[in-house]
Design brief:
By secondary structure, the chain is of the alpha/beta class. The chain has twelve helices and nine strands. 43% of the residues lie in helices and 13% in strands.
Length: 291
């Protein structure tokens, strides 16, 4: 159920990104021992990647990575966190993404808490670097953010070199939910689309939007590789077997030929510091003969 809820949050967030049109200003606090509350899983991971994990005093229920984050007090869910708890933590800054409601942001601002909501245009690889730099600026980790971006760029260059001899790109479908709860796939307007492209693949749903394509379209396009984005605690072998034996998915060539794989959803769905890692995993699944 938690996985389905997160899929719905992703879907709602994608709608909000399209219709809301983000307005924000990135603030920076010049303070050594900051108290930070993160209200988004990708931001929490980035805070740790920038070496500021010790400054994190609050997170959401979904901020489960890295493992050290679990030691930090949770302030509730992503959409409507416990504002009283956040205020009681006396943070110097609250950092969040589009999923934070304006009502919650208003409450925190009225309480005198500097709240930064990252809801700008962070499309593609360049957008990812922009996001990392803006998070770094907001928590006074500019140099660390720049270094992290350079490290990611170097890793992406190595992956590009490895798959440079590929003559025919393979098509790919990244599916985050399927079956009775509805089909949600990475479409062309998602961050995952950029991951697939950087991995040398072609997203079969690159011309679709808002995580939605019909099952008929999936069957007609018949992508070369199917990748299921699963919860960390999900039995991947069981999930794959369930998918390849369920109609109409079992009609796909990937199901018949053993090209259905799984990936940790936390890695591929969260835009930020794990970008290069997710590209590397997808590239290996698409072109195992190169690695």
């Amino acid at each position: 159920m938690k996985r389905i809820l997160f899929c719905l949050i992703i879907f709602i967030t994608s709608l909000f990104n399209i219709f809301a049109g983000g307005e924000k200003e990135t603030h920076s606090i010049q303070k050594k021992n900051m108290r930070i509350v993160s209200l988004s899983p990708n931001i929490t991971e980035t805070v740790f990647a920038l070496g500021a994990g010790n400054s994190l005093v609050g997170r959401t229920d979904y901020c489960t990575k890295p493992e050290e984050a679990l030691k930090v007090r949770s302030v509730g869910n992503i959409l409507e966190p416990d504002t009283e708890m956040i205020i009681a933590l006396k943070p110097d800054i609250v950092v969040a993404s589009t999923n934070l409601s304006f009502s919650t942001m208003t409450i925190l601002n009225r309480a005198g808490i500097n709240t930064v909501r990252f809801d700008g245009d962070y499309t593609g690889k360049d957008g990812t670097f922009r996001l990392l730099r803006e998070i770094g600026k907001s928590i006074n980790k500019n140099a660390e953010a720049e270094e992290l971006c350079q490290e990611i760029e170097k890793k992406l260059d190595k992956i590009k070199d490895v798959i440079s001899d590929i003559k025919e790109k393979r098509t790919c479908a990244v599916i985050i939910s399927w079956g009775d709860w509805g089909d949600f796939v990475a479409t062309g307007d998602t961050f995952i689309n950029e991951i697939i492209e950087c991995a040398g693949g072609i997203n079969f749903a690159e011309n679709a939007a808002m995580w939605s394509v019909s099952r008929e379209f999936l069957l007609s396009q018949n992508p070369d590789v199917i990748i299921l984005a699963l919860n960390t605690d999900t039995d991947s072998e069981k999930a794959i077997n369930s998918f390849i034996n369920t109609s109409p998915y079992n009609k796909l060539n990937a199901c018949r030929e053993g090209r259905v794989y799984s990936i940790d959803a936390d890695i591929i769905e969260r835009q930020g510091s794990s970008f290069a890692e997710s590209v590397a995993i997808i590239a290996k699944l698409l072109y195992p003969e190169c690695f």
